[in-house]
Amino acid sequence: MDSVKWGIIGCGNVTEVKSGPAFNKVEHSELVAVMRRDGKLAEDYAVRHGVPKWYDDVDALINDPEVNAIYIATPPDMHEEYTRKAMQAGKPVYVEKPMARNAEECDRMNAISAETGLPLFVAYYRRALPYFLKIKELIDSKVIGDVRFVNICLQWQPYDEEVGENAKPRWRVDPAISGGGHFHDLASHQFDLLEYVFGPIKAASGISRNQAGLYEANDITVANFEFESGILGLGSWCYTVNKEQREDQAQIVGSKGRIHFSFFEKFDIKVETAAGTEVFNIPYPTHVQQPLIEQIVKELRGEGISPSNGITGARANHIMDWITGK
């Protein structure tokens, strides 16, 4: 594939800055068409972002002869179906995370990829961000010695639309659409990155409950997990604390020190060893998916290998299914 000409299915919020503009900023890549069920919103996106074509019908975009690669940015309930349609039309797929609602759907998507011989990529873009690559470098170079355990804590307050008399929670907390709640949306990023840094997780268990009753999905989860390397992990996620308790903190403890970092909100990496404390500040790029998209385009052109694909992407769903007892 000489030039990758992308079509986006579902040009919603995630595509406004994180991903959409990046397709035109990567060499040998171009965004040529977008689709949204609401045609007016699809047209508005196309006009604002300078995209030549827009559609309100998914089949029309998939079968556009100018489009040779598909980016699926819909909620997870449509990922499997649209992946199948795109690959049956002969087009590789880049799909948003989580890869699907559960591990079974992910496995079927990988089966479609294997049957058609077309690559499947997943938007676990932390695998290509300099901030997280620095953490991997620190671990690989044994700055903190042999890693003993990992501890992650994510505590967020409810979103405004989830509380009050006129509460209207969004699709992310509707399990029929998302597969779970905020845990599935955010912990998927965390487990994918942890496996990229430390290798496969061989066992995980936990407790997941709905305590506050703001929506159907569970709002609190605690878990423990073990990597094949012997490293152990603990995690807790709660999405119903007050804003003063908001926390996004992760800690990697080794035989010679520890690393503190954030998965979502901060740009500092603090390394503590006997020699003292060192802090690295590495902000995210404007379009956070651009480094991964660059790697995907290189693979489609036969020039490299993407760090995130359907096989690696499915792992996060398997781990979350183990923890939530699916």
Q: What is the CATH class designation of the largest domain?
A: Alpha Beta
- General shape: globular
Percentage of residues in helical conformation: 25-40%
Per CATH, the architecture of the largest domain is 2-Layer Sandwich
Mean pLDDT: 97
Q: How many strand segments? A: 14
Percent strand: 25-35%
What's the N-to-C terminus distance? Answer: 39 Å
Number of domains: 2
Gyration radius, to the nearest Å?
20 Å
CATH topology of the largest domain: Dihydrodipicolinate Reductase, domain 2
Which regions have little confidence, pLDDT < 50, spanning 5+ residues? none
H-E order: EEHEHEHEHEHEHHEEEEEEEHH
Can you summarize the main beta sheet?
8 strands, mixed
Task: Give the helix tally.
Answer: 9
From the helix content, strand content and strand pairing, which structural class follows? alpha/beta
How would you write the strand order of the largest sheet?
8-9-10-7-11-12-13-14
- CATH superfamily descriptor of the largest domain: Dihydrodipicolinate Reductase, domain 2
